[in-house]
Amino acid sequence: MSKVSLAVDVGGLKMKNPVTTASGTFGSGLEMVEYVDLSRLGAVTVKGTTLEPRPGNPQPRCAETPAGMLNSIGLENPGVEVFVAETLPKVAEYGSPIVVNIAGKDIEDYGKVAAILEKESAVSALEVNVSCPNVKNGGMALGTNPDLVRETAETVKANTTKPVIMKLSPNVTDIVAVAKAAKEGGADGLTLINCLLGMAIDIKTKKPILGNVVGGLSGPAIKPVALRMVYQVHNAVDLPIIGLGGIACWQDAVEFLLAGATAVSVGTGNFLDPSLTMKVIDGIEGYLIDNGYDDVNDIIGLAAK
Amino acid sequence: MIEQGKILLNEKVGRDIWRMELKCPWIAMKAKPGQFVNVKLNDVAEPLLRRPISLHGIDAENGIISLLYLVVGRGTEMMTKLENGDSVDLLGPLGKGFSTFFHGRRAVIVAGGIGSAPFYPLMEELKAKQKNITMIYGARDAESLTCLDLYEEQGAEMILVTEDGSVGEKGFVTGPLDCLLAERGADFVYACGPEAMLKAVEEVAANHGVQGEVSTEARMGCGLGVCLSCSKKGKDGKNRKVCQDGPVFPMGVMAYE
Hints:
By secondary structure, chain A is α/β, with parallel strands linked by helices.
């Protein structure tokens, strides 16, 4: 047993350590078992799932940008029924809490997906994606309007007893207003942040690189923005936060905890080092020991206010 | 797996084409023809992502792989600056490689430009299975045709094609392929190159009733099947991940949209 306590509680989602995976960067987790001991993760947050299967966006779907990458995957997934029948039982074998990221084309859709997952005991919490920059309906279209965020949270809450964590879009002027709306809608926690909307142009073809023209920027390039938003929301809204955006080493993760995140997600960093989550868990533990703390909760928000 | 590959050789072998030899015993032991490694430069924040590069040589006994790479951007440009003794971070071997259990003896390999890269280790395996190999190798110009001696060493009959006619036949690989299949037939066709070429090669092979495999490419985020950046549509409307379901697919599977 570790001599420091790493356990955290994100609005009822009980994690043995504060490290999970950013939805869409880790598949279902099963693809990563050669590199990651899934049972060591605080939680496995799986790829976004929708009511119907989705084919995703046209190619090309990714482009490299300075210290980051753009993606326009477009929520490609086989649909929630296939996920529940084929994938969920296999991921559940590893014993870590499973957070299912859900999305929909309208608010009603979110409620239906939540209702289907409510019946699955293997699902520990729902992460509600009102921030995907790559789909025309739902996603960011909801997440940039506080009233719609509130309504989405209410609808999901009405269809589930599991913790509801709203994943917010950074593509707003006032993140605190959106976070407050999520809380009013009954959210149990927040995930901050999803990708920033961006684009890249190929100067040879003189056309946008992405098939979808615009896409979501992730990676170290967005870390300062993510950290700022976590800090602002932690100071203003009484909800636990899963912080993410450009975490590429354990030190980055500690910054998020100090800014006020209760837990962190590793996203694009998984592509560079598939076992990064394991190193982040070890690094946070080492930091606590070196700095004389015996509980990770003691450092959450130390940089705030 | 992740392994540090120590560079034994890094030399220019053609127009913007380089060949790198790396000591990485685990990857060399596990690798199959048609698979790739995802290469990351050490100690640099830029470029961020790994670069998927197919295996041009697999020497399991000596623990050595080689990569043939086209310099297309910052990442590959930086690779050319690496020297013997430097290391790169390798993730691999990744993806599904070529099949060599076809019925009959005659294999035809069709390569376009840097698409020649995966065929050297395939030839070694085909040769070990006593297959006869013809390679139709096309590129923009003579300088873009590389490593011909290696393919000849494997006993491959070479048919060279250039767009400018500077060496071999002038035109595209599909012309000689059509003639060859009409005159002599083949038991299996392998192809790697630009999508337009793969599409055309599949049509020619299908016209002659010959089966085969294609090695495809896509922009990749992870190489592990988690990000879905490289997901491309098949003719059946279902998506395939180039990194995991491919990069090698049977002919007739991909839609080439």
